[in-house]
Every structure is written in structure tokens, then in C-alpha cells.
Design a protein that fits this description.
4-stranded parallel sheet, 39% helix, binds zinc ion, TIM Barrel, Urease, subunit C, domain 1
């Protein structure tokens, strides 16, 4: 464990903090952390540098500087980029990391059959062989790859929706998170209908699983376990009530996909005479501790229910567009006071974990839809991938201020696409002009996870080569595998 204080100084600093002002932009700023939290944030000066090196001596590590046992103030470089809070991803699936580019041009339920469920089935059938080949659980391989993806894009904390077959593999996801040094809520999946029959639960079984995982992993570092029933259509009322009661008993969040595609809403109307939101509301599932992913299809009444109950929404524009699901009315939601944040969804449907790209698409789509360039400015969408999702997930991250966890990232601004960048356009350039992969340094909980583009906690080459191999084996399997058909209520 690296217990040193960390100092980073850069051309621009964005605290995205309520205390320092959400839109505050500091030129030549610095952040000082101790082993786990932020101690100082502000404008750098020679006096500041001199004081810090004097106070901390050999206990100081200056990020981006030539390594020294003891630094002098003149050794502290002003890095040519921007320091900001690590991104907070409120909805994703680590198990999808190897299935980028699989089953494209298909809607949600077909994609679930042809990509997600086929892949997880393959992992289960070939487990012993794959385990032998990789010297570790193949699921762990996929989760470690997802941790690389997150760190690469500057995501330091997330909620991972651990769906379908992955609900049996919580030990590996906890292991991956602990190894990576990130923060994670694991929303453990469940389903008791309209899904792969091999993995259907009962309400009692789902609750027992939650009890067992809480006992096993409830004290794992930087990891929290909450219920995450997969889909509104794949969980009957008794199961949802039982899992919500579990969440209430333990004071946790609960997470679920909701109203993602129009077919599902149609099925709910035919079956219950209700929309998915009305159905969830009628069984007491919705309140401020419920976080719904998507909520694409909404009636006026749905929006009223969401507002009245304080339910939180995670918008995933990359997945919603690729799967042709449609886009939720997030501008209207925010005007009504419904809490909304932006995330990526899993790599399989997104097909990346690029938070800045997700923020950009969310904003661009709404501007075009409303024929109004003023909706969702860059500053706002940046808040929707940092401070707001941190609040959703109860993380002490998402902004840079004294007392917050030391989760921060540095993005290089020297590439042609980000030149010129000034204090007055740095936020706009991040959202509109960046590629989203300019992250060079990542610190989480005071620990350096990426140092000048190099992963420090994970064996990048080994994980990438194992995932490549895994994906080639899966491609072979897919050619001859029996087609899975049957996910989704309306099929
Ligand atoms: Zn999802």
C-alpha cells in the first residue's frame, strides 16, 4: 500500500464541486491527497509548492514528475492538461467486456440471446477447459478486462449490474475490483420468468443468495453488494417485492433495467394493463433508493410516478442508440425534477466505456431532438458523469474538494483535436472535441491506478491476450452452437 501524499499540478483544474462552485475552472491548479482522501484543492503558486515539499518531504509523490526521493518545488511540473474527478459510471456490465462487436444491428432481446446469453452459456459449458487454459476463472478474465476498460477511460467508481449467469460469479467480480483498485457496487442479478430457463430463480432463492453474498463479501474493500434484478419483464411481482424488502432491510440501493424497448412496454400493457413503471409502483418497488437503467418509454403518468417516488434514472445513450431502443425524455425528466445521470451500459451494447462520448451523445441527441442548442450544455453533462452519479451511488467521490475520496484523473490536452484549449473552453472541449481516451493518470482512493498511460495495478498485456483468446474461442463456438431464443416477454 502506497501511503505517500500525492500531488498533481496541471494547466487546468475542474473541481466540479458544490463547495468550490460546480462550474469553477482553475488555471494552474493542484490537488494534494493523503493515502486515501483529498487534503487540498486550489490554485498553485510557488509558495504552495514550497510549503508542500517542506511539509511532506520523502512522504510526497509528485504525479507526472521525474521520480525523486525528496522533491524540490522546482521539480513539480505543470502538466499540460486537465485534472478532474474520476468518472462515476452508474450502470454497466463487466461481463460484457469481451463481446464488443458481437450480434450488431439487432434489438435488445435478440442481442441478449445472440451475444450475452450465448457467451455466458459458452463460459459455463466450457468452464473447466477455459480455467485450465487461463490458469484462472474465465469470468475473472472478463472482469479484469472490464477494469482495464474503466481505468483507461478514467472511471474510478461504478455500479456493475451483474446480470444473468454472472449472478453466480460474485467472488470473481469482487476479486477483480479489489485487484484493480477501483470502487464498485455489485448489483447482483435475479430473474424468475421470461429468461433462459437454466437460471430462473424463486423469490426465496434470490433472497438467500443475497444473504450469502452479503455474508461473504459484505466487508470486502471498496465493494458493496446490492440486489439488481435483471429486467422488469424477467422478474415477477413476488420476486421484486422480496428483493426490495431485502434492500430496505439492509438500507441498500436496488437496481434494475426498466422500459428499455417498446416491445416490453407493449407486453406489460397486454399482461397487466399497466406500463412497467405503473407495475413497479403498484408493488412498492419505486422510491429514492431505486435506480432504474434506461426508462426509454415513458407516459405522462410514468413521469409523474417517477417524480413522486423520487426514483432515479440512468440514461445510457450509446446502448439505447445501437440497439435501436429509442431515447428517454431526459430533458423533460430533469425539468420535472426527476434525477437523471448519464452512463455507458455494458461494453457489449455500448460498445465501449467512453464516458465523455456518452455525455456528448446524450447532449447532441437532445439538442437535435428539441431543435434547441441551449439544452444540456457541456458543463451540465460533465456533472451527469461525475458529481451527480456519485450522489446516486452514495460515493464520496465525483468532485474534488477537501475530505472527498482521492479519486481523480488527468487528461492530456496536447493532441491536435484539443488544441487550442483555454480556461474558457476547457469544459466544452472535453465534451465536444475530445476522443475521451486522453486519460494519462488515474488515482483512486489515493492509489495510482494509471501512471502516464501505464496500468499499475493490472497486468494489461496478459489480460488483453487472454480476452482475445477467449473471444476467438467464443467465435468458433458461436458458429456451431444451438441458437438461443426466448429472452424477452413478448417473444
Ligand atoms: Zn444494461
Amino acid at each position: 500500500m502506497d501511503k505517500r501524499f500525492k500531488l498533481i499540478r496541471s494547466k487546468f483544474l475542474l473541481p466540479i464541486s458544490d463547495r468550490l462552485g460546480r462550474s469553477t475552472r482553475i488555471s494552474d491548479g493542484y490537488v494534494l491527497t493523503d493515502a486515501s482522501s483529498i487534503k487540498e484543492v486550489g490554485k498553485y503558486s510557488e509558495a504552495v509548492g514550497t510549503r508542500i515539499v517542506k511539509e511532506h518531504g520523502p512522504d510526497l509523490h509528485v504525479i507526472g514528475a521525474t521520480r525523486r526521493r525528496v522533491y524540490r518545488a522546482s521539480d513539480i511540473p505543470c502538466l499540460a492538461g486537465v485534472v478532474m474527478p474520476g468518472f462515476v459510471k452508474a450502470h454497466g456490465h463487466d461481463h460484457e467486456s469481451p463481446i464488443i462487436g458481437v450480434a450488431k444491428d439487432e434489438p435488445l432481446t435478440e442481442w441478449l440471446d445472440h451475444a450475452v446469453n450465448l457467451f455466458t452459456g459458452f463460459m459455463n459449458e466450457r468452464r473447466d477447459e477455459l480455467q485450465k487454459r487461463f490458469g484462472r476463472s474465465p469470468n475473472l478474465v472478463t472482469y479484469l478486462k472490464a477494469r482495464l476498460d474503466d481505468i483507461y477511460y478514467g472511471i474510478t467508481s461504478s455500479m456493475v449490474h451483474h446480470c444473468n449467469h454472472n449472478k453466480y460469479r460474485v467472488q470473481e467480480i469482487v476479486e477483480a475490483n479489489v485487484a484493480a483498485g477501483t470502487k464498485m457496487i455489485v448489483a447482483v442479478g435475479a430473474q424468475d420468468r421470461n429468461y433462459d430457463p437454466r437460471i430462473l430463480d424463486t423469490p426465496e432463492g434470490s433472497v438467500q443468495r443475497m444473504d450469502r453474498y452479503r455474508e461473504l463479501f459484505g466487508t470486502a474493500e471498496r465493494t458493496w453488494i446490492v440486489p439488481g434484478p435483471d429486467q422488469d419483464f424477467s422478474n415477477g411481482p413476488d420476486q421484486l417485492k422480496a428483493l426490495k424488502a431485502w434492500a430496505n432491510r439492509h438500507g441498500t440501493l436496488i437496481h434494475m433495467h426498466s422500459s428499455e424497448e417498446p416491445n416490453t412496454t407493449r407486453w406489460f400493457r397486454e399482461t397487466y394493463g399497466q406500463t412497467p413503471v405503473e407495475y413497479c409502483h403498484s408493488i412498492g418497488f419505486l422510491d429514492p433508493n431505486t435506480i432504474l437503467a434506461h426508462q426509454v418509454n415513458c407516459t405522462d403518468r410514468d413521469l409523474e410516478i417517477l417524480r413522486e417516488t423520487g426514483t432515479k434514472i440512468v440514461h445510457n445513450p450509446l446502448a439505447n442508440t445501437i440497439l435501436g431502443s429509442g431515447m428517454p425524455p431526459i430533458v423533460r425528466m430533469m425539468e420535472m425534477g426527476i434525477p437523471v445521470v448519464i452512463s455507458t451500459d455494458g461494453s457489449g451494447s455500448a460498445d465501449n466505456q467512453n464516458m465523455l462520448m456518452a455525455a456528448k451523445l446524450a447532449s447532441q441527441y437532445q439538442k437535435a431532438l428539441h431543435q434547441n442548442a441551449r439544452v444540456l450544455p457541456a458543463q451540465k453533462v460533465l456533472e451527469l458523469v461525475t458529481i451527480e452519479p456519485a450522489r446516486f451511488l452514495r460515493f464520496n467521490t465525483g468532485s474534488l474538494e477537501e475530505g472527498k475520496d482521492a479519486d481523480l484523473i488527468f487528461l492530456d490536452l496536447t493532441s491536435p483535436n484539443l488544441t487550442p484549449t483555454r480556461e474558457d473552453n476547457v469544459v466544452e472541449n472535453l465534451v465536444w472535441a475530445s476522443n475521451g481516451n486522453e486519460v494519462r493518470h488515474v488515482v483512486a482512493g489515493g492509489r495510482v491506478l494509471m501512471d502516464d498511460g501505464r496500468f499499475t495495478t493490472l497486468p494489461e498485456d496478459e489480460v488483453k491476450s487472454q480476452v482475445q483468446e477467449l473471444s476467438e474461442l467464443f467465435a468458433d463456438h458461436k458458429r456451431t452452437a444451438q441458437e438461443i431464443k426466448g429472452t424477452g416477454a413478448h417473444t
